[in-house]
Each structure stands twice: as structure tokens, then as C-alpha cells.
Amino acid sequence: MFTGIVECKGRVVEFKSLDNTESGGSGASLTIADAKDILGDCHLGDSIAINGTCLTVTEFSSDEFKVGLAPETLSRTNLGQLQPGDHVNLERALAAGHRFGGHFVQGHIDTTAEIVEITPDANSIWYKLRVADKKLMPYIIPKGFIALDGTSLTVCDVNDDDQWFTIMMIAYTQTH
């Protein structure tokens, strides 16, 4: 379980479609650097959300960590398209008994979304998005929340007929 509030930005070091090392598990893996802010209390097997996707840590150092990527994860996210140098949003799993400032976000990804339109509005920005899987539209409701790249955001408008929804991103969220 996560909050949808990004703790830090990491940097992709490597995506391997076939990682035959023990920590790669003979499948796809992703290695992330610039993550020291969230690795101080990390253990093998911990969950870390990368762009909102809940993934298991299979190897880590003081600044880098590796996760395995299942075929289901690759089919429902854009993680397999990441390139070295790309930045990603990172968040550790919730710790029981601690205050959280966002929404309850599972980190189980249903689909991707396409940005259809971007409209500035004072110091905020409207985003109109279209989901790749139209069967999910009934679950997107005005004033509900949705996690995009790991950031939990409030849904503003929904158009089921044209299959789009909007969110508004405040200035703080734009810069963090």
C-alpha cells in the first residue's frame, strides 16, 4: 500500500529484458539509481513503487536498487520502454502506524493513459487523458482519485462517451 505522494525521483540505469542473474530471476529487470533517500531502511523483498507500480526489491546498495518485472507488469505499464537516464517517481510502501498524507494506492496497475490535451490555468495545469483500456472508464469517477505515474490525483471531469477524464495539477505537484 502506498500514498501516491512521490518521495523522490530516481534515474533508470538499466532495463534488461532477460536478466539471468540471481536477482534478475531469469526474466526482465530494472535497475534504478539516485535512490539513496528511500534505501536507508530497505531490505530484500521490500516493495517500492516505481511510477506507481508496486515492485519487489531483489538487490540494492546505498544508492541503487533492482526489481524484477513480470510479463503482466510489462503488458500493463510503460516500464519496459524506459531508457537509461529516464527519471522515475519513487515511493516506499506505507509503514503501519505512521501518518500518511495522500490516498491509499495499491500500486497494482490496470492500464496506461494517453495525454490528449494540456491546458494551463493560472498556476495550475489541466490534463485531459484517455485510458488505453476503455473497459475501465466506469471506475473513474469525478472527485475520486487516480494514480498517474505514482502520483495520486483527484479526478475532475469524466466523459464516458468520448472516453476521457481530466485532472488538475497544482504548482507544487508540477515541480515535485
Describe this structure in words.
This protein has 176 residues and is mainly beta. The chain is 9% helix and 44% strand. The protein has 3 helices and 11 strands. A 6-stranded antiparallel beta barrel has the order 1-2-5-4-3-6. Strands 7-8-11-10-9 form a 5-stranded antiparallel β-sheet. It is globular. The relative contact order is 0.20.
What labels describe this entry?
mainly beta, 6-stranded antiparallel beta barrel, 5-stranded antiparallel β-sheet, 3 helices, 9% helix, 176 residues
Task: Compose a concise summary of this entry.
The protein is mainly beta. It contains three helices and eleven strands, in the order ββαβββαββββββα. It has helices spanning about 35-40, 70-75, 170-175; strands at about 10-20, 25-35, 45-50, 55-60, 65-70, 85-90, 115-120, 125-130, 145-150, 150-160, 165-170.
> What ranges have pLDDT less than 50 throughout 5 or more consecutive residues?
none
> How large is the radius of gyration?
17 Å
DSSP helix fraction: under 10%
Instruction: State the secondary-structure class.
Output: mainly beta
- Portion in beta strands: 35-45%
